[in-house]
Amino acid sequence: MRCWSSSAVEALRHDPSCVFLDLGLPDGRGLAALVTILGAARVTPVIVLTGRNDRRFGDEAVAADAQDYLVRDDSTAYLLERAVRYSVERRRAQVTGLAL
Fold first, then answer.
1. pTM, whole model, 2 decimals?
2. pLDDT per residue as tens digits for the range 8-36
3. 9 — alpha (psi -120 to 50), left (phi > 0) or beta?
4. Which helix (H) or strand (E) holds 4?
5. Which burial class, exposed, middle or buried, applies to 3 when counting CB atoms under 10 A from its CB (0-12, 13-18, 19+)?
6. E strand or H helix at 68
7. Where are the alpha helices (DSSP H) in the chain?
Protein backbone atom coordinates (compact mmCIF):
# COMPACT_ATOMS: atom_id res chain seq x y z
CA MET A 1 0.00 0.00 0.00
CA ARG A 2 1.25 3.46 -0.86
CA CYS A 3 1.78 5.79 2.04
CA TRP A 4 0.26 8.74 0.21
CA SER A 5 -0.56 9.67 -3.38
CA SER A 6 2.11 11.55 -5.26
CA SER A 7 -0.44 14.17 -6.36
CA ALA A 8 -1.20 15.04 -2.72
CA VAL A 9 2.49 15.44 -1.93
CA GLU A 10 2.97 17.46 -5.14
CA ALA A 11 0.14 19.84 -4.13
CA LEU A 12 2.04 20.69 -0.95
CA ARG A 13 4.80 22.28 -3.00
CA HIS A 14 2.45 25.23 -3.54
CA ASP A 15 2.52 25.97 0.22
CA PRO A 16 -1.19 25.93 1.09
CA SER A 17 -2.28 27.78 4.23
CA CYS A 18 -3.39 24.59 5.94
CA VAL A 19 -3.92 20.89 5.23
CA PHE A 20 -6.80 18.76 6.47
CA LEU A 21 -5.62 15.17 6.39
CA ASP A 22 -8.08 12.30 6.53
CA LEU A 23 -6.21 9.25 7.80
CA GLY A 24 -8.88 6.86 6.58
CA LEU A 25 -8.48 7.26 2.82
CA PRO A 26 -7.51 4.29 0.62
CA ASP A 27 -4.14 5.71 -0.42
CA GLY A 28 -3.00 6.87 3.01
CA ARG A 29 -3.93 5.37 6.35
CA GLY A 30 -2.79 5.99 9.87
CA LEU A 31 0.22 7.77 11.26
CA ALA A 32 2.47 6.66 8.39
CA ALA A 33 0.43 8.89 6.05
CA LEU A 34 0.71 11.75 8.53
CA VAL A 35 4.48 11.41 8.71
CA THR A 36 4.70 11.44 4.90
CA ILE A 37 2.57 14.57 4.59
CA LEU A 38 4.41 16.34 7.42
CA GLY A 39 7.70 15.64 5.65
CA ALA A 40 6.39 17.23 2.47
CA ALA A 41 4.47 20.05 4.14
CA ARG A 42 7.57 21.80 5.55
CA VAL A 43 5.94 24.88 7.14
CA THR A 44 2.27 24.11 6.41
CA PRO A 45 0.13 23.21 9.42
CA VAL A 46 -1.56 19.82 9.22
CA ILE A 47 -4.86 19.08 10.93
CA VAL A 48 -5.91 15.45 11.18
CA LEU A 49 -9.60 15.07 10.38
CA THR A 50 -10.96 11.57 10.82
CA GLY A 51 -13.94 9.49 11.77
CA ARG A 52 -12.08 7.81 14.64
CA ASN A 53 -13.29 9.05 18.00
CA ASP A 54 -10.19 7.80 19.82
CA ARG A 55 -8.47 10.32 22.06
CA ARG A 56 -5.28 8.23 22.27
CA PHE A 57 -5.03 8.24 18.47
CA GLY A 58 -5.51 12.02 18.47
CA ASP A 59 -2.77 12.43 21.05
CA GLU A 60 -0.47 10.26 18.91
CA ALA A 61 -1.21 12.40 15.85
CA VAL A 62 -0.39 15.62 17.73
CA ALA A 63 2.74 14.01 19.23
CA ALA A 64 3.80 13.13 15.66
CA ASP A 65 3.60 16.90 14.89
CA ALA A 66 0.07 17.43 13.59
CA GLN A 67 -1.18 20.80 14.79
CA ASP A 68 -4.63 19.49 15.73
CA TYR A 69 -6.95 16.49 15.61
CA LEU A 70 -10.67 16.72 14.88
CA VAL A 71 -13.33 14.01 14.77
CA ARG A 72 -15.33 14.51 11.59
CA ASP A 73 -18.76 13.88 13.16
CA ASP A 74 -18.10 16.31 16.01
CA SER A 75 -16.81 19.14 13.80
CA THR A 76 -18.80 22.28 13.21
CA ALA A 77 -17.99 25.26 11.01
CA TYR A 78 -16.90 27.16 14.11
CA LEU A 79 -14.55 24.36 15.27
CA LEU A 80 -13.03 24.01 11.79
CA GLU A 81 -12.41 27.76 11.54
CA ARG A 82 -10.92 27.87 15.02
CA ALA A 83 -8.71 24.84 14.37
CA VAL A 84 -7.33 26.46 11.21
CA ARG A 85 -6.61 29.80 12.90
CA TYR A 86 -4.93 28.19 15.92
CA SER A 87 -3.02 25.67 13.83
CA VAL A 88 -1.63 28.34 11.53
CA GLU A 89 -0.43 30.37 14.51
CA ARG A 90 1.02 27.33 16.32
CA ARG A 91 2.90 26.27 13.19
CA ARG A 92 4.16 29.81 12.60
CA ALA A 93 5.46 29.98 16.20
CA GLN A 94 7.07 26.55 15.82
CA VAL A 95 8.84 27.50 12.58
CA THR A 96 9.98 30.81 14.09
CA GLY A 97 11.29 29.02 17.17
CA LEU A 98 13.27 26.58 15.01
CA ALA A 99 14.75 29.46 13.03
CA LEU A 100 16.04 31.11 16.20
1. 0.80
2. 677 677 677 888 888 777 776 778 888 88
3. alpha
4. none
5. middle
6. strand 68-71
7. 6-11, 30-41, 55-63, 77-99
